[in-house]
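WARN  no MSA supplied for this record, continuing single-sequence
INFO  ligand: carboxymethyl coenzyme *A
INFO  echoing inputs
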Amino acid sequence: MPEPTVQRGLEDVVALESSLCFIDGRGGRLIYRGYDIRDLAANATFEEVAYLLWYGQLPNRGQLDELRQRLVMLRTLPPELLTILDRLPTTSSPMDVLRTAVSALALLEPTESQPGVTSIGGALRLTAALPSILGYYHRRRSGQPAPPTHPELSHAAYVLAVLRNGPIAPLDEKAMDVALTLHADHELNASTFAARVTASTLSDLYSAITSAIGTLKGPLHGGANERVMELLEEIQLPERTEEVVKAKLARHERIMGFGHRVYKVEDPRATILRDWSHRVGEEKGNLSYYDRLRRVEEVVHREKGLYPNVDLYSGSVYTLLDIPKDLFTPVFAVSRVTGWTAHVLEEYQDLRLIRPTSNYVGPTDLTYVPIDARP
Ligand code: CMC
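INFO  complex generated
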């Protein structure tokens, strides 16, 4: 029998069928349940997109109002969880806090976290709770009182209200809403795959989301936008861009915010966020991030032929919205939890244990040597 081919990183392996999200990597298109991301980013709200992912169709006005009300009601966290959050070191990484809090919530809310539960109750709960968890932790570490649940605010405005201070301009709210929409789902990316692997063992929704948060944390996935802002800090002046980027490439370092496993052209989310980085920058009279990023793009494309991905411009938008850098990846999770939960619910509907094999390359004929006889 011929040796099976190893697909390192499962590249190009089609693992399952899904009706949630389609990526046309060569055409640069991203589709949620039939709708182009450009159409959704321009016209829909994040709540509509969440409904679309969970229920498979856009809501009518009554359905959307009901969803909004349910999300608002679910923003309140149980006091036991607040006690746990109060005990965490204020130096903890917000992604670690999020992972720990979701895991703890499973103990406190056993009904929704039952294995194989296919109702969207848990999906709504986690989507509503994630900004509250982050807001509570962030305010506590900054010596501020716990944020109110702001029932009058949309999801995007609530995220802004708990993570920063000051009034929320309509453009800020729309920028955050677009960012949340763009990050909501992305086919079988690493964190979604992790969630589906967990769910495929018939484990519970909260365990699947805990796996996903741990997977999103890595800089090759959700953590890249923080590193993009670190690059801009290193560049400082636009005229230093060429020198700094080329030096990194000469050291074979990766430039964060570029390249993608699936897109062979520009990530359509990057195109939209580039525009928003410019719009928000112009509104706030600060185009310095946008200008440096444009130069980075130019150098990386010229030197390596790589295109931007979603992470290149998102950090600049969040910075302009006054969101601290270590909350960028958690904000990604605040959005992606809708896609993760939709995938887990889909997995439960058509469950098949995800269990690939590996090609063993180690020895097979060794004989056990007693410990005192070993060299
Ligand atoms: N900077 C410099 N070189 C790169 C980069 C980059 N960002 N991305 C790919 N390359 C090079 C890589 O070194 C390799 O070159 P060579 O063949 O000479 O060794 C070639 O391009 C192919 O790279 P690869 O690692 O085989 O490609 P991949 O499909 O495994 O990588 C990736 C995809 C996203 C991990 C990678 O492009 C990367 O590390 N990018 C930077 C991190 C980043 O921006 N991550 C966010 C991804 S988008 C958010 C999400 O959807 O999760």
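The mean pLDDT is 95.
INFO  checksum written, moving to next record
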